[in-house]
Design a protein that fits this description.
Helix content of chain A: over 70%
CATH topology of the largest domain in chain A: MetI-like fold
CATH architecture of the largest domain in chain A: Orthogonal Bundle
Shape of chain A: flat
Strand content of chain B: under 5%
Helix content of chain B: 55-70%
Oligomer: heterodimer
CATH topology of chain B: MetI-like fold
Shape of chain B: flat
Strand order of the largest sheet of chain B: 1-2
Radius of gyration of chain B: 26 Å
Number of helices of chain A: 15
Structural class of chain A: mainly alpha
CATH superfamily of the largest domain in chain A: MetI-like
Order of helices and strands of chain B: HEEHHHHHHHHHHH
CATH class of the largest domain in chain A: Mainly Alpha
CATH superfamily of chain B: MetI-like
Order of helices and strands of chain A: HHHHHHHHHHHHHHH
Radius of gyration of chain A: 27 Å
Number of strands of chain A: 0
Distance between the termini of chain B: 45 Å
CATH class of chain B: Mainly Alpha
Number of domains of chain A: 2
Number of helices of chain B: 12
Distance between the termini of chain A: 47 Å
Largest sheet of chain B: 2 strands, antiparallel
Largest interface: A-B, 107 and 103 residues
CATH architecture of chain B: Orthogonal Bundle
Chain lengths: ~350, ~325
């Protein structure tokens, strides 16, 4: 009788590893502190890190080499470097997201910040006057226009890429992929050159919405294309075998199967579109006034308002800029969390 | 009776099969609509360059080849060119890549190899969120916080490595305790750093995708031969993900070249080729357009359109190269 085999744990940290990491870290910090205070004329947090980190790596390698071979030392060093890089990047992310919210807290505390435009408030006025309602309205209207254009066209194009094959399909796919990194300012210039100069529209929220949709289209098509590709072909074949045509197969099988992933692709593209500044700068212009009509006159958006306000030299104006950025960031966060919740089953997950 | 058995059909790879019957009318219409949507997207994307070219033609024909060699930007006195801004764009993008590449590699390796499986989805979401953060927020962070709080970095770099021409800062005296920080902010370095943070998630997600697709069998084989985790990464994961790494980096480069607002918020515009990346001043094509758009004359607009066209062509080339490299890897293919 042998005991049933148990899967062995191959990974995981041993207690000595943790001890050497902590030991090396504290030794490195202490040594650098000693260097700073007593020995060399260094100063500043950056120099501290720049000296402490290599010291940590060296000490860590030394500690590991006490009871392991060179192979293990290299392994642990690589692990330490990867962990610290990931820590730096993710820490920076948290900081960047939290920064405008913390800095804008003061402006956000005033109710008029959400209910007024900047018509009554000059640059020197305190925070009790003026707000970003005009920018919020502009952002919502522009993104709605962009979505009205992007969602049907992008969805149809993604289905097109998946349902047909041939030279033309490949051409469209290549062009769309190359356009995903279209500089947003070029999208703005394009709409200005075509819609405004050639077709005679005026600089307005509508033009900005079009520019944003030019930028969002390739992003959405690409994401939706990947999701649609994950729909099992057995499902499609089953539908075709039951006698339904292509339209029915797409409408009743492919799209419902990919629904959560498609929603995610739309929401992610929206999150990108909401935050774009330069197309709005080029096609809609800046105005401090509330403008409900997206087809007539300038209309500002949250990112553009942030840009203009922060560029001002007045402290209250800067605070308003931070507040606008915080509102924008909150909007993006909501969209993003929504995308994750909707797409929680992962791309290709079956809907019930 | 001899029954002849027909040969069994040859083994076929499992994949979508072609329908034999003629599609009905509604399906033909459906396919027409799809084709139309594809065509519409293609036309929009293809005319971007066309419109920029027709609008910028006036400026380009006026300036001729000087457009590529002149550093100043005075379109109304017919003295303008993109030499300075183009060099500035490339410098900013290079700094961005130098920052973004190791960070992206570290995060991608961490997520695909080191992170506990429970955390992977959350971490992937975090990186995607980082990609969705508006560029104006990055610009805000860089222009009002990072460059002032971190001013020690360029100072330290320029003092220690000032003998490298790129890292020297002219007009800054490190020995003078009264000298201000202004010489070390609003520089190419800070713009590039912030843009690097912005493009990091894009590079990272392509890298992670190709790393996670490294075949499990090969990983296990390497483990069985006694490789450490780093050994597996070096001999299986990295070679397998090489084209993903290169392609992702080039995608990031394409984005870094086109970034507008974050650069415009940080940099102090200079219209001269300024290669001292740590010192104040620099420029980029997109920042130039954003700054000059509001006050430009009709001819100035044409000149800005021409600059936009140059940027468009540059990013397009980089992107085509990137997608060609990525297409050679297996990412996203054969998922059925």
């Amino acid at each position: 009788m042998t005991a049933p085999e148990v899967r062995r744990v191959t990974g995981g940290a041993r207690r000595t590893d943790l001890a050497s990491a902590l030991g090396a870290a504290s030794a490195a910090i202490a040594l650098t502190g000693l260097l700073f205070d007593q020995i060399a004329p260094f100063s500043g947090a950056v120099a501290f890190v720049a000296i402490a980190f290599p010291l940590f790596l060296g000490l860590y390698a030394l500690l590991i080499s006490l009871h392991d071979d060179a192979l293990a030392v290299r392994d642990r060093l690589a692990s330490a470097v990867v962990h610290s890089l990931a820590l730096v990047a993710l820490g920076a992310l948290v900081f960047i997201v939290a920064y405008p919210i913390v800095m804008g807290a003061e402006a956000l505390g005033h109710l008029n910040f959400f209910t007024d435009d900047m018509a009554a408030a000059g640059t020197l006025d305190p925070l009790e006057l003026g707000g970003v309602l005009h920018a919020a309205v502009g952002t919502l209207e522009q993104i709605t226009i962009a979505l009205v254009i992007t969602v049907p066209l992008g969805l149809a194009c993604a289905v097109f890429l998946n349902e047909t094959r041939g030279l033309f399909t490949r051409l469209v796919r290549t062009v769309v992929e190359a356009m995903t990194a279209l500089p947003s300012i070029v999208a703005g210039l394009f709409i200005y050159a075509s819609l405004i100069l050639v077709l005679g529209f005026e600089r307005s929220g509508f033009a900005a919405g079009c520019a944003i949709s030019v930028m969002m289209l390739p992003i959405m098509i690409r994401a939706a294309d990947v999701v649609l590709r994950l729909v099992p072909s057995s499902l499609k074949e089953a539908s075709l075998a039951l006698g339904s045509g292509q339209l029915r197969t797409v409408w009743h099988v492919v799209l419902p199967t990919a629904r959560s992933g498609l929603t995610t692709s739309v929401l992610l593209a929206t999150a990108r579109g909401v935050g774009e500044t330069s197309p709005v700068l080029i096609t809609a212009g800046f105005t401090p006034y509330l403008n409900w009509n997206p087809f007539v006159d300038s209309q500002v958006s949250l990112p553009l308002a942030t840009f203009q306000m922060v560029m001002s030299s007045e402290e209250t104006m800067k605070q308003r800029g931070f507040g606008a950025a915080a509102v924008l960031m909150a909007l993006v966060l909501v969209l993003f969390v929504l995308a994750r919740v909707v797409g929680g089953r992962g791309p290709g997950g079956r809907s019930r | 009776m001899t029954a002849t058995l027909s040969a069994p059909p040859a083994e076929r790879a499992d994949g979508p099969r072609r329908r034999v019957g003629p599609p009905g009318g509604i399906d033909r219409l459906f396919r027409l609509v799809l084709r139309f949507a594809g065509l519409a997207v293609l036309v929009v994307m293809a005319t971007v360059g066309l419109f920029l070219a027709t609008r910028g033609a006036a400026a380009i024909s006026e300036a001729g080849l000087d457009f590529f060699t002149t550093q100043t930007w005075e379109p109304d006195s017919l003295d303008f060119g993109i030499a300075a801004v183009l060099v500035g764009t490339v410098l900013i993008a290079s700094v961005a890549l130098v920052i973004a590449f190791p960070l992206a590699l570290g995060v991608a390796l961490y997520i695909s190899e080191y992170a506990p499986p429970r955390l992977r989805r959350a971490l992937t979401s975090m990186v995607d969120l980082m990609a969705a953060v508006p560029s104006v927020v990055y610009g805000l962070f860089g222009s009002t916080f990072l460059q002032w709080q971190g001013v020690d970095v360029p100072r330290w770099l320029s003092i220690q490595f000032g003998w490298i021409p790129f890292l020297d800062v002219e007009g800054a005296d490190p020995d003078n305790p009264l000298s201000t920080d202004a010489a070390y902010v609003t520089s190419t370095f800070w713009a590039g750093l912030v843009v690097g943070f912005m493009v990091m998630p894009f590079i990272c997600s392509v890298m992670r995708e190709s790393f996670t697709q490294a075949p499990q069998g090969e990983r296990e084989g390497a483990h069985a031969l006694g490789a450490t985790k780093w050994g597996v990464i070096r001999s299986v994961v990295l070679p397998f993900g090489r084209s993903g790494m290169i392609g992702g980096t080039m995608l990031g480069l394409g984005r870094a070249l086109g970034e507008t607002i974050a650069v415009a918020m940080i940099i102090a515009p200079v219209f001269a080729i300024h290669t001292q990346i740590l010192g104040s001043g620099g420029n980029s094509v997109s920042a130039l357009i954003a700054q000059r758009w509001g006050a430009a004359s009709p001819f100035g607009l044409s000149a800005l359109m021409a600059a936009g066209l140059a940027l468009f062509v540059l990013t397009l080339l980089v992107n085509f190269a990137a997608s060609a490299v990525i297409a050679r890897s297996r990412s996203g293919q054969g998922s059925d």
